[in-house]
Amino acid sequence: MLKVFEVGGGQVSQNGEHAKLVLPPGGGRYADAQLDDYHAQGRHRFLYSPPLTLTLRVRASHAAPTGTLGFGFWNDPFSLTGSVLAGPKVIWFFYASPPSDMALVDDVPGRGWKAATLDTGRLPPFVLAPAALVAILLTRVPGLGPPIMATARRAVQAHEALLADVPLTEWHTYELAWRPAEATFRVDGVERLRSPAPPRGPLGLVIWIDNQYAIASREGKFGFGLCPVAETQWLEVEGVQIQPGG
User: Fold this and answer.
1) What is the mean pLDDT of each run of 10 residues along the chain (246 residues)?
2) 138 touches 210 (CB < 8 A)
3) Where are the domains of the chain?
4) 48: which DSSP letter?
5) Cα 181 from Cα 203, distance rounded (Å)
């Protein structure tokens, strides 16, 4: 059962199988309108592992919203203060606006509308956080940023496909088939990405729209913050179904 999670003026309205996640104008504080199935369970009590298939219909108010939005499965690895609680593991459809620049895969832009998987492995937070800090500090040394980021991309399992031809403002049916050895993403029945190395789970289901940005560029630049939202924007969702089995 999906539960409402609202922060900073974000609002979620529901009517049967239809939900509307609304983000208000602003930018001085973090704002999030979200549905998920893990906040009510207690942190890290995630419900889903493969094999299963997620299907839903989605559209957004803007072709290029400000901040991020998406839907799929992840391990909710960050606290609201930005602390790293675990290595990120995600299997989802994901959008990020400028100034976000998360360059995880060669030849795929660090922002935009994508299908994506990411598995950073099983490093515990007390190892992951210091390692990330050291890497960030080293990228500030002239000339070291690009090779360090290239090494980091090789060290994680990341697969992405850009969905530039799928307008966010139109209704589309999205399907995510998560199996132990691969994850297949389809839009309106057409395969868009087949990832050979998805996380194993368990993970939690999340559907959201917020005003964040994150930068981990190929040049070794890092950043995190909030985007100013000029006008109300929203994400509409209907017909969320999860079918277990292969």
Assistant:
1) 92 96 92 91 79 98 97 80 64 96 85 92 50 42 46 66 97 97 97 94 94 80 86 98 89
2) no
3) 3-244
4) B
5) 16
- Please say whether the dihedral angle defined by the alpha carbons of residues 156, 104, 169 and 187, taken in this order, is positive or negative: negative
Is the Cβ–Cβ distance between 201 and 49 less than 8 Å?
A: yes
User: What tokens were used for 8?
Assistant: 């900073």
CA distances (Å), 85 to each of 52, 82, 104, 129, 158, in order? 26, 9, 20, 8, 19
**What would the two tokens of residue 170 be?**
């139109």
DSSP state letter for 126: H
- Assess contact for 229 and 153: CB atoms under 8 A: no
pTM: 0.86
CATH topology of domain 3-244: Jelly Rolls (2.60.120)
Could you tell me the two tokens for 23? 């983000």
What residue has token string 């930068």?
215
Between strands 89-96 and 222-226, the pairing is unpaired
Other CB atoms within a 10 A radius of the CB of residue 171 amount to 11
**Which residues touch 206 (CB under 8 Å, ≥6 apart)?**
34, 35, 36, 38, 70, 71, 72, 73, 74, 76, 92
Cβ–Cβ under 8 Å, residues 118 and 156: yes
